[in-house]
Write a structure and sequence with these properties.
This protein is of the alpha/beta class. It is built from twelve helices and ten strands. Helix 2 links the parallel strand 1 and strand 2.
Length: about 325
């Protein structure tokens, strides 16, 4: 081995050892100040509720306050880009959800790359999309809806927030059931619900968290949930898979940090989050919103997101949908 090569390897080894030592020391003092969880939803929405459900116990376990910050707009692009561009020090986290993976699949103009710029630290919760009709609707079950759609191709309408999991779940349902119906896009959950109750829509496809109160009050009637099996908080509502075998869509939320965040800090957050999600207190909190706690570590969550992006890309191509 040449003298120059020996010197290079010694220098590289010293740099690596110094980086490891610094990272270890940093992780031992982390965190030294308040953390932020940034999400792209509105106040009181699912992302907000799940972020706050995690923020309290995470702050207790870390010994620092955890502030939840909503930055809605741009299909969550504003919030996700803010986290991706923040200092990779473990003090700024993003709440990821199924909608983020849909945007990654459909929107080529995002100012961040979900799979390159953000690294998952763990899941928080999962919940189904639910198909609801008005209380006086003639459709009593999902099969009667399918039959009506086949008799009147393209005339039945479903309302969903455009470019979201809900929207693509409605398209996947149509493809699987071999029907044609018309999507009426909205920018939030209030509009389609108002139009459904007013008789201007046939069906609303939205998250259970958004519709739980109206289902319980009887304002709307749930025909089916999108999960593979009946959902614990709606045990009397059939799963779509009972009519369309193999149908399975569940929405989700989890936390991520900027990609360059030191491994020791990411691993600390991953451990704390895993402990939080399995506590009875956290489960009780998220079940109030129709969700279930969902524990998945960083590596498994990354693989899950990769599959989700690929899946929605395929669904969007079949439905000829793009946001770019």
């Amino acid at each position: 081995m040449t003298r120059s090569m020996t010197k290079y390897l010694a220098t590289a080894g010293l740099a690596f050892a110094t980086a490891v030592s610094f990272g270890t020391a940093w992780s031992q003092t982390y965190p030294e100040r308040a953390l932020r969880i940034i999400h792209g939803g509105g106040a009181g929405g699912n992302a907000d509720l799940m972020s706050r459900s995690a923020a309290g116990p995470l702050g207790e376990r870390l010994g620092q306050s955890v502030v939840v910050e909503a930055r809605p707009g741009g299909g969550q692009n504003i919030a996700m880009a803010a986290v991706a561009g923040s200092a990779p020090d473990g003090y700024t986290l993003a709440t990821l959800n199924a909608g983020v993976s849909v945007q990654a699949a459909l929107n080529s103009k995002l100012s961040y790359d979900l799979r390159r710029d953000l690294v998952p630290v763990g899941m928080l919760s999962s919940f189904p999309v639910v198909f609801v009709v008005g209380a006086d609707s003639p459709y009593k079950d999902i099969q009667s809806l399918i039959e009506a759609a086949r008799q009147k191709p393209g005339t039945l309408t479903f309302g969903a927030i455009g470019g979201t999991t809900q929207h693509l779940t409605g398209e996947l349902f149509a493809n699987t059931a071999d029907i044609r119906w018309t999507n009426v896009p909205y920018t939030g959950s209030a509009g389609p619900l108002t139009d459904l109750i007013g008789g201007r829509l046939d069906v609303v496809v939205d998250s259970l968290t958004a519709l739980m109160g109206q289902i319980q009050s009887g304002q709307v009637r749930a025909l089916a949930v999108s999960s593979a099996e009946r959902w614990p908080t709606l045990p009397n509502v059939p799963a779509l898979s009972e009519t369309l075998p193999g149908f399975d869509v569940t929405s989700w939320t989890g936390l991520a940090v900027p990609a360059a965040t030191p491994a020791a800090v990411r691993e600390r957050l991953e451990r704390e989050l895993a402990e939080i999600v399995k506590t009875p207190a956290f489960a009780s909190q998220v079940r109030q919103y129709g969700s279930e706690p969902y524990s998945l570590g960083a590596a498994d969550m990354k693989a899950f997101i990769d599959r989700e992006v690929d899946r929605w890309n395929h669904v969007a191509r079949d439905a000829n949908i793009a946001l770019n």
